Amino acid sequence: MSDTCHESLTPDQLDALGDEIATFAVRIDVAEHALLTRLRTFDAHEAWGRSGALSCASWLSWRTGVGIKAAREKVRVARALGELSKIDAAFGRGELSYSKVRAITRVATPKTEQDFLDIAQHTTASQLDRLTGGYRRCKLLETGGSGEPNLGDLLGDDSRYVRQRKTVSGMVQIEMQLSPEEAAVVLAAISSAGTAEQASAGATEQASAGAPDQPCAAQSSRISDPQLREEQRADAIVDVARAYLKHRPRTLGSSHQIVLITTKDLLEQGPDGVGGFMRDGTPVPLHVARMLACDGSRVDVTLGEQGELLDIGRSTRAIPSAIGRALWIRDGGCRVPGCDHKQHLHGHHIHPWAQGGPTSLANLVLVCSAHHRMIHEERLSTRISEGKIVFIDQRGRKLPGVPPSAATGRDLEELDLYLRDADLHIDPSVSAGHWDGEPMDLADSLTWMFIAHSEPAQSARPST
Fold it and tell me: Which residue in 26, 39, 23 sits closest to 97, CA to CA?
């Protein structure tokens, strides 16, 4: 079947359309550079924290509607460009695409950025991805696995993180950075598990020796062995993890539960064979709903005229399990706009319990541990307004669930004006590469790059 749209355009018109596509692509890259430049300044001032966000990437995801992975990558690239002035300038002129810049910033340093810039202008984006990936792997092998960028340098010394990486030997390194009080909890758990394991091991050794009144010389020498102590701490942290997975404490959102929302009428004569609904609205067949209701725990919830959950008052600070489950059904995760945490959640008293606030559904809201900390540090607050739970940032502004769109209806005109003010004259040739069509020899390219990036040869050394 022929396409009438294609038939209505001449070859010259199609060529012109192709040029327009290439021009728009460069405009997008220039606009992306402008966005990242502003994002870097915004991040440097930690302005994202004023809105209750846990990180710049979380704020960017919430404010602009991009996925969290894409947001993290944009923040990483924005930070890296602050140290790579030549790459940054070429990107701002539209000479490099965002894809190429993203690949280069994974490996380039101020000393090597010119080489990567020259290579980027003579390769395709996919070739550059292969090259930078191979370069990074070679660097890791060259340094014995220690060439990984320091995450503390990338995220700042006060960032909380857990990361892992494989070493050349095949082992896995797990590194974490926590606040002092969190680190104390983890270390106490390791110490407790380690003490129990040492006691058990000591008892086993004495029993096997057949002389409980004579301490084993091998045991006393091993206790003072630093490497053994490190191995015992490794055993302890593994035991802590195993114990958690085995017993799995029922913090809000951390346990695996099937939540069925139903009524007496539905269970007796569900319409069309539907006996209830899952938390996300998925209908459950009547026979399955009856089976779940037969041996499951029940939470009775009374609804108001508008379908809202009514209060179940309690006189204690601790949240009873029934209210906890009802709270989870209502909130489903951290309620702070832009936060997608659904595990290890806390029930926060909106009107403080110490000041007379009840432990009731209407006075509780689910928040993650990080946002709970922010609330009690008075960097974020929550209140009930017109029957709805709202969060207030440091400037007293209400955080909307969905931020307003930044579109003006004249976005293309404004982009043209920006390019004109920046004295950037963009046409399809600006980002044109200089690849000659020859296939890239990855091994040969990496060899020459490492020769170029190695320490200067000691050519001045006298020959013998």
Answer: 26
